[in-house]
Design brief:
This protein has 4 helices and 4 strands; from the N terminus they run H-H-E-E-E-E-H-H. It has 129 residues and is α+β, with helices and mostly antiparallel strands. The chain is flat. Strand 2 and strand 3 form a beta hairpin.
Length: 129
């Protein structure tokens, strides 16, 4: 099969993320946004990193209110000093960004799942759908 050409790349669907082109040309990154999501048993932990800022959001279960923690990694690389209260506006903005990323991931995951009628009926009976 022939290698993909520029036209093939142009037809790709839009990707979530940032262009790496400026970095390939030698530009220094001004802010890097990265997120992670972890579910273990009923404990959920999500994080978002934007430049030197790191937001952690944790909740013990689906009914619990999330606990937000904010760190300035340039000044506190060990994440000892929670700045969420002192920098509430920044913490809220990052939390909203994290929630939007999580919503996009859920929507993408839901679009990828196809259930047969029997499986869907079983999940509905158990209250999952």
């Amino acid at each position: 099969a022939p290698a993909p050409d520029a036209d093939a790349f142009a037809r790709l669907p839009p990707l979530d993320g940032r262009s790496l082109w400026p970095f390939a040309r030698g530009a220094a990154p001004d802010a890097v946004i990265a997120s992670a999501h972890l579910d273990v048993d009923r404990y959920r932990l999500r994080s978002l990193r934007d430049g030197d800022w790191k937001l952690l959001e944790a909740e013990a279960d689906l009914l619990g209110a999330p606990r937000i923690r904010l760190f300035d990694l340039a000044r506190d690389p060990g994440e000892h000093s929670d700045l969420a209260a002192a920098r509430a506006v920044r913490a809220q903005a990052l939390a909203q960004h994290l929630a939007a990323l999580a919503q996009r991931r859920r929507a993408a995951a839901a679009a990828e799942v196809t259930l047969d009628e029997e499986t869907e009926a079983g999940l509905r009976a158990l209250g999952y759908l």
